[in-house]
């Protein structure tokens, strides 16, 4: 049957966050299946919305922009930059609606600097497993992706959060939209958070140096 580490845990839950008899029945069925485990969530609606923001108005149209080729997308930095920015816009929309980032590991898209996120996403997209995890579904479910993108945009319009990157990617849900030139790398990366982080680090180091000097002066 395998260990707990070998199990694929399936998150699920009621939209209203309640745990019902039906919820427990589904959990029991999953736990009874070899290789699977149940992850009951009381925040399923929020969980789903953040996964939509991560994939549908951002990564999916960027993939279509690259000819539904994950390797080409990985080589096209501008498309990856737009993906990262669109994800962040989507997260800001959901935060404006009072929804906390869920699951918490998604917070990495908020606090990691854009250049590092772009680099990591390029590495991930170049992985052969992405053909199964993303490309095949994107090809088979284009209509579904378009419908979910429309739903998310309608949600975004209920807030005052600007979504220029999502709006820029949206036309690429159309199969007839032109592809981005492969290898395009003209969009400047946003290094501001890097400089802010370095500035904060420099301030901390300067403070430590000052404290050490004061300690030494007292000893003398």
Structural overview:
The protein is mainly α and 220 residues long. It has 2 domains: 4-40, no CATH class; 44-189, no CATH class. It is 62% helix and 5% strand. The protein has helices spanning 21-32, 44-65, 70-75, 77-96, 108-111, 114-125, 129-140, 142-156, 164-169, 192-219, and strands at residues 8-12, 36-40. The chain has a two-stranded parallel sheet with strand order 1-2. Helix 2 (44-65) runs antiparallel to helix 4 (77-96) and helix 2 packs across helix 8. The mean pLDDT is 87.
Could you outline the blueprint of secondary structure elements for this entry?
Blueprint: E1 8-12, H1 21-32, E2 36-40, H2 44-65, H3 70-75, H4 77-96, H5 108-111, H6 114-125, H7 129-140, H8 142-156, H9 164-169, H10 192-219
Parallel strand pairs: 1-2
Helix pairs in contact: 2-4, 2-8, 4-6
């Amino acid at each position: 049957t395998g260990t707990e580490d070998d199990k694929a845990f399936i998150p699920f839950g009621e939209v209203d966050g309640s745990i019902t008899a039906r919820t427990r029945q589904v959990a029991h069925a999953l736990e009874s299946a070899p290789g699977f485990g149940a992850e009951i969530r009381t925040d399923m609606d929020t969980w789903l919305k953040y996964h939509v923001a991560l994939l549908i108005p951002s990564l999916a149209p960027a993939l279509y922009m690259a000819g539904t080729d994950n390797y080409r997308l990985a080589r096209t930095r501008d498309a990856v930059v737009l993906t990262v920015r669109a994800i962040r816009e989507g997260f800001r929309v959901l935060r404006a609606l009072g929804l906390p980032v869920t699951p918490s590991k998604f917070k990495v898209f908020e606090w990691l600097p854009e250049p590092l996120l772009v680099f990591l996403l390029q590495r991930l997209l170049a992985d052969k497993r992405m053909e199964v995890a993303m490309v095949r579904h994107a090809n088979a479910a284009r209509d579904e992706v378009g419908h979910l993108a429309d739903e998310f945009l309608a949600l975004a319009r209920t807030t005052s959060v600007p979504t220029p990157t999502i709006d820029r990617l949206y036309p690429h849900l159309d199969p007839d939209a032109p592809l981005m030139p492969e290898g395009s790398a003209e969009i400047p990366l946003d290094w501001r958070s890097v400089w802010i982080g370095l500035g904060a680090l420099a301030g901390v180091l300067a403070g430590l140096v000052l404290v050490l000097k004061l300690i030494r002066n007292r000893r003398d």
